[in-house]
Amino acid sequence: MISENLKEPDKLKEFLKEFFRKAYYLAKPIIPRSTQIAVRRRKVKRQLGEYADIWPIDPASGEKPVGWTGWPEGKQFALILTHDVDTAIGQSKCMELSRLESNLSLNSAFNIVPERYLVNMDVMKYLSGKGHEIGVHDLKHDGHLYDSEKIFWERAQVINNYMQEWEMALGEPVSGFRSGAMHHNLKWLLELGASYNESTLHDESTFDTDPFEPNPEGMRTIFPFSVKDGKTGKKYIEIPYTLPQDFTMFVLMPEEMRTTDTWKKKLAWVAEKGGMALVNVHPDYMNFLGNKCGREQYPARLYKEFLEHVSTEYKGHFWHALPRDVKTLWKDIQTPHDRVYNPAA
């Protein structure tokens, strides 16, 4: 269990991280998208060698929770599919993505951005009716959710309202959250959960290892863990993704690496360790038409190929669940990666 003092962070490290993050998002609107992608591709190519010892596999993240008895039904590992719907274009592809998964008897969680595009409630109801989970993806997806604690609190109240509104409209719990660009502040997210419903929130804004993200600090575990306020006892369940994101794999990586091989390699390792294979795929970047892909697209057949691989090679060996199912399973489990935030003495 990791105990952290909320009032004594590494101030210099936090300052520099926030400075560069804010500078990037201030400059981003005036930088052509093609330039952004080109710069990120060069950076990823350089980082591949630098982080080869921790990506795509960080050996330290395979430690099983002490006393943990395993996944339901005695399954070897868990499989969780999630989707961040970043744009209106992505929203328009959600039903087709749902059909792709349903044809393989799989389902997933779709995380919707409340205030970046006009949310289509009919699409959300369709997805919910097909057994998918609906979650909230940031508020505006503009990179400013964590600009300050004040801004976070203001937006958190609006996020809470959307959770409640969508829950009423869908007739089922809306309890999942994921920040845009995987930004995260576990302390602040703890309070978001407390302000909505402390017993139901689960967050998906972290990862076991991903040095290519703006906040590159991995959680170094392929298992869920809890985040708790040591004074009040309030907590939520953190569910990190453990397979590389599709945008990284199929848009940013060198062309020779834009296959499902890395996913399959990481999946085999996660299965061997008995962990949680959680992948995050964006419908925004998927090309379902079979024609030539644009600069930020990849063929939807790559995702289908991976799902078919899981379904055939590991048939009967994985517990297929939604994030909310993982949250329910994990709410009373303790792990060495649990975070307890204690007030300063």
List keywords for this structure.
11-stranded mixed β-sheet; TIM Barrel; alpha/beta; 345 residues
Report what the structure shows:
By secondary structure, the chain is α/β, with parallel strands linked by helices. It has a single domain (2-63, 77-342), classed as Glycoside hydrolase/deacetylase (TIM Barrel, Alpha-Beta Barrel), CATH 3.20.20.370. It is built from eleven helices and 13 strands. The chain has helices at 11-27, 33-50, 88-92, 94-102, 121-129, 149-170, 186-197, 246-252, 261-273, 300-313, 323-330; strands at residues 2-5, 77-85, 109-112, 133-137, 176-178, 202-203, 225-229, 235-238, 276-281, 286-287, 298-299, 318-320, 339-342. A hairpin with a 5-residue loop joins β7 (225-229) and β8 (235-238). α6 (149-170) packs across α7 (186-197). It is globular and about 55 Å long. The chain starts with a strand and ends with a strand. The model has no long low-confidence stretch (mean pLDDT 91).
Q: In sequence order, what are the helices and strands, one letter per element?
A: EHHEHHEHEHEHEEEHHEEEHEHE
**CA-atom Rg in angstroms:** 19 Å
Helix content: 25-40%
The largest sheet is: 11 strands, mixed
Based on the coordinates given, report the CATH architecture. Answer: Alpha-Beta Barrel
Taken as a percent bin, the fraction of beta residues is: 15-25%
Mean of residue pLDDT values: 91
Total domain units: 1
Counting DSSP E segments of at least 2 residues, the number of strands comes to 13
Query: What sort of overall outline do the alpha carbons produce when their principal axes are compared?
Result: globular
| CATH class descriptor | Alpha Beta
| Class from helix and strand fractions | alpha/beta
Total helices: the number is: 11
CATH topology name, in short, is TIM Barrel
Fourth-tier CATH superfamily name: Glycoside hydrolase/deacetylase
